[in-house]
# Entry
Amino acid sequence: MISSPSPWIPTLILLLLSLPIIFFFTSRILPPPPPPISLPDELDDLTLFRRAAAAESHPTRRPKSRLGFTNSKPKIAFLFLTNTDLQFAPLWEKFFNPNKSQSQKSQNRNLYNVYVHADPTVKPGIKPPGGVFSQNRFIPAKQTHRGTATLIAAARRLIATAIIDDPANQFFTLISQHCIPLHSFQFLYNTLFETKSHQLAELKNLKYKSFIEIISQDPNLWDRYTARGDNVMVPEVKFESFRVGSQFFTLTREHALMVVNERRLWKKFRLPCLRPQSCYPEEHYFPTFLSNEDPKGCAGYTLTRVNWTDSVNGHPHTYFPSEVSPELIYSLRRSSFAQPYMFARKFSPACLNLLMDMADEVIFRD
# Structure
């Protein structure tokens, strides 16, 4: 007796025939995965990082002051990471060059440097706004993708360039295109270098700390750790040593050099993610590395205020014009840590005019 075919066979045949159609439409609905960092880009970066290490150790570099600085006036390097035009450039221009005497503006110019990493693949192209954001402040950049190691590479590229460019750069502050300042430049400078009346503090063997968020207790820590697959991160990165934190930070020169010289952890964090919704390498690499190498040299918190109370798809709360007020600026400054917040994100470009209107009387009046 011949048995009748299983009722599941037609279903299986239909499913197999449907797979090509499913793949065809899925490839057009879902965005393609971002490409990995190419070998030429990797080699370019390695050359740049080696130049940074060589510049720091070169015997002809400027002599140090008695406080350990390479210049009597140490500087802050501001590292802007962007994939859009710098919509808040007018506000930052006022931050660097306040409406004060020409001598005050000249003095400020000797205390900072600006560097911009602008994604070169953005069409029609990101335009230098001029002023402190002139063309020569835009460094050779590579393409960046959210949630990938390209953002780590871009930050390291900025840091290495700033190390090479000026030995007086002693703090390295990473800034988003959606960031705004919450205090005047002079307030920030005096806070970082512990100065009064624009003079260096009379302290010997002063060891400054990096302001980088380092979190070891997070409900999503395991998902983030295994985002590239089970056991992929070991032995270089064990789960007990894995940390998360804010993408934006302020590093000392000592830590900046450690970051551009690092190779071991980079091999793991540059790997592609299997679960992009849990993978934010730029928020994992820097806290993990520095917390393992020099935990006492890190404050454990960032100077950039971010509102995560109603985040969407991994993005923090975005402030719109209806929310902008002096009270908002005052509230964003407040911190439970030793230092107040100096910057805040994420702001809509439509907020610019309101922020400019209150810049002199609110934002830059400390």
Notes: The radius of gyration is 24 Å. Residues 22-30, 63-68, 197-206 have pLDDT under 50 and may be disordered. The domain at 39-56+68-304 is CATH 3.90.550 (Spore Coat Polysaccharide Biosynthesis Protein SpsA; Chain A).
